[in-house]
Write a structure and sequence with these properties.
Largest sheet: none
Structural class: mainly alpha
Number of helices: 10
Radius of gyration: 18 Å
Strand content: under 5%
Helix content: over 70%
Order of helices and strands: HHHHHHHHHH
Mean pLDDT: 84
Low-confidence stretches: none
Number of domains: 1
Number of strands: 0
């Protein structure tokens, strides 16, 4: 599960960068910008290293990118300003694991054993304790944010299950599944067009740059967008794909559910917002779950 923990770390840093990038660019342009950054970085690495990303089952990875990096992340970026980082990540990460568990069982007949399932439930319980405070703000915005969080969880779960489908297709064809960077590149090819079309559609009225903060911070804003792309859809997705190749999607998503806990600690370090007691108690429970999962 080391790759899953790596994904959680990079995703957490990505969320921290996303908050800053969204403040400068708006949620849609920030989301598109980070994916384009990742597409260039990962694409160049795959090309220059001689990797071959298009193996048997690559269509499942492409579909995973459409649903996860496309639909799921669009919903996530629009849920963030409505219900905040805590509740958004709680809904996305915690609900994605049981949804993926159901999908894997229905499609591939895969399910964790008893100790693994118990460990996953402990992780999810810890995240729920840490981030379970009720959201504040306008009730209509909150309801919309909750539905967007649920949509994000569904997209992430569907995107995750696409990987074991690709692994199964490679096994049937007698091929070796490509590594995490090659898989991540294919997922980006699926996600980027979805986000680009959505951004162009939303920008048709007010323009693509309508939500840029003015005056634009040329020295810092592009850096936050670059780090957001490098941490999340580049390094994070590569670790995530490696973990999904080696373990069931439900278990990987349970470990990646640590992302909001790590992210809140990073937010404390970067922005000076001290976490509440829920983080410490929930974090201890979640870490216990990770230890149990590694021993299961």
């Amino acid at each position: 599960m080391d790759y899953a923990l790596g994904a959680a770390f990079f995703y957490a840093w990505s969320v921290t960068c996303a908050r800053r990038s969204s403040a400068h660019h708006g949620p849609d342009l920030a989301n598109l910008g980070r994916l384009l950054v990742a597409l260039v970085i990962v694409g160049l690495f795959v090309l220059l290293s001689g990797r071959h990303p298009f193996s048997a089952g690559w269509g499942w990875l492409l579909l995973g990118g459409v649903l996860g990096l496309g639909v799921g992340d669009i919903a996530l970026f629009h849920a963030l300003p409505r219900i905040g980082v805590g509740l958004t990540m709680l809904l996305t990460q915690c609900l994605a694991a049981p949804i993926a568990l159901f999908l894997e069982y229905e499609i591939l007949g895969l399910s964790p054993n008893g100790p693994q399932l118990l460990s996953a439930l402990v992780i999810l319980a810890g995240v729920g304790v840490a981030l379970g405070a009720p959201a504040e703000g306008d009730p209509a915005d909150r309801r919309a944010g909750v539905w967007l969080g649920l949509l994000s969880a569904f997209g992430q779960a569907c995107g995750a299950v696409g990987t074991p489908m690709a692994v199964d297709a490679c096994a049937r064809a007698g091929e070796t599944i490509p590594d995490g960077f090659a898989q991540g590149f294919v997922r980006l090819l699926g996600g980027v067009p979805v986000v680009l079309l959505f951004v162009l559609w939303t920008a048709s009225k007010d323009g693509l740059l309508a939500k840029l903060r003015r005056p634009y911070a040329w020295r810092t804003a592009p850096i936050w967008m670059f780090m957001n792309g490098l941490a999340g859809p580049a390094m994070g997705v590569a670790c995530y794909q490696w973990a999904l190749t080696k373990h069931d999607a439900a278990l990987v998503l349970s470990v990646v559910a640590l992302t909001p806990l790590i992210g809140l600690v990073m937010q404390w370090a970067v922005e000076g917002q001290r976490p509440s007691w829920r983080l410490w108690v929930g974090g201890a429970i979640a870490i216990l779950g990770v230890v149990l999962l590694r021993r299961a």
